[in-house]
Amino acid sequence: MLVIRHGINVGIILALLFNKTVGICSHGVCARQTIENQTGAGLREVPGTIDSITGNICGLNLESNHLSSLSDKAFQNYSSLKYISLKNNHLFYISEAAFCGTELTYLNLESNNLHDIPWFHCNAEVHVPLKILHLGHNNIGAMDSFRDLPELKCIHIENNNINSIDPDIFYDMGSIVDLNFAHNHLTDIDPQTFCGTSLRWLNLAFNNFPKIPNLSCVAGKLENLNLGHNFIKVIHATSLNGLTNLTRLRLENNYISCLDSDSFSTTEGLGYLSIAHNRLTAIDNSTFCGTRLVSINLASNNLTDVPNLSCIGGTLQNLKLNNNLIQRLDRSSFVKLFKLETLSLEKNTIHYIDPDTFSEIDVSQVYIADNKLLCMKLVSGNFYSICQ
Predict the structure, then answer these.
(1) pTM score, two decimals?
(2) Which is the most buried residue in 100, 217, 321, 350, by most CB within 10 A?
(3) Is the CB of residue 50 less than 8 Å from the CB of residue 36?
């Protein structure tokens, strides 16, 4: 049964598909009842003791206080600590030995006044077993060192002032799987920067990249890449060279006007792709051939015709083409898209739909509000014709 919808937005459905699932970087190291909450308590230093604590605690929440610095072994009285959140304080100085004596694996330093990446050094035999580090929304300008953190898996350092990354910064950090550099000032990345890591998720959105950086060093590892909101204009055949394990790619809000016919020829594992809010006027028939695309977002471009996507007809389930310049649909528009379930065509200039447009496919939901159609009539419950 084909359902024609005029007022419902499919954006929510596709937004869920394109969001990274919560994984290794969700803390999950402490049960909620073992986290002592001192949020907004007016603290100006880490308390030596907390009266409400009756035994060993796993986590300490010190968010939204007035802490400006952390001295050596600031948490030594909480030796069982695995989780510390210091978000929304005024920290500008952290001693390299501040967390020594803890079992810290998760640390949130978001929204402070840090200008440098903190050092974490105890002694040659002992290191902080940190796995997850949040440094977003600070004033960090240099990416030069993550000292003595051999177990670090995730670094989120979005919304800072970073314009370059030392190519040796992740040397010998094979545990790294997730990096978030969104909302910085990066224009390029040295091809050797991520060599030696186990990088699977990389967020480079909201930077100043004029092209896709060379990520061949993590070919066969990288699964999720976000390059939305940059200044990329073209995707060449070599742009994604070797990223055979890539399953999710976000390129929305760039200036892409051209896709080579073999732009995605080496990304055979690609399942979810967003190129919304770009400047595409047409797409070659073979551009996506060889991929396993399940969902494509091509909304808000300058497409005048529905692109021929028949070569991925065996996998494509969700197609978003709203906010383009498409004027008509006919039987050839969705040829061989046998798996298509959801189709979004809102806010085009469609004035005619051939009665046989959906006769050979089993699409269940079509979103078609805000076009130039005068009226529609369901025929046999499976497709519709346009009243003249």
Answers:
(1) 0.91
(2) 321
(3) yes
DSSP H helices in the chain: 11-18
More confident residue, 28 or 277: 277
Rounded CA-CA distance 133/105 in Å is 8
Strand pairing report for 376-379 and 383-386? antiparallel
pLDDT at 64: 97
Residue 245 has pLDDT above 80, yes or no: yes
Contact 199, 205 (CB under 8 A): no
The Cα–Cα gap between 24 and 318 comes to 27
How far apart (Å, rounded) are the C-alpha atoms in residues 101 and 107?
Answer: 15
Check: CB of residue 103 under 8 Å from CB of residue 78. no
Residue type, 25: C
- The pair of structure tokens assigned to 126 is 């002992």
Q: Do residues 184 and 207 lie in contact, with contact meaning Cβ atoms separated by under 8 Å?
A: yes
| For residue 63, pLDDT beyond 90 | yes
The set of residues, in sequence order, having a beta carbon less than 8 Å from that of 21 and lying 6+ positions away, is none
How is the chain split among helix, strand and coil, in percent rounded to 5? Answer: 5, 20, 80
Confidence check: pLDDT of 8 > 70: no
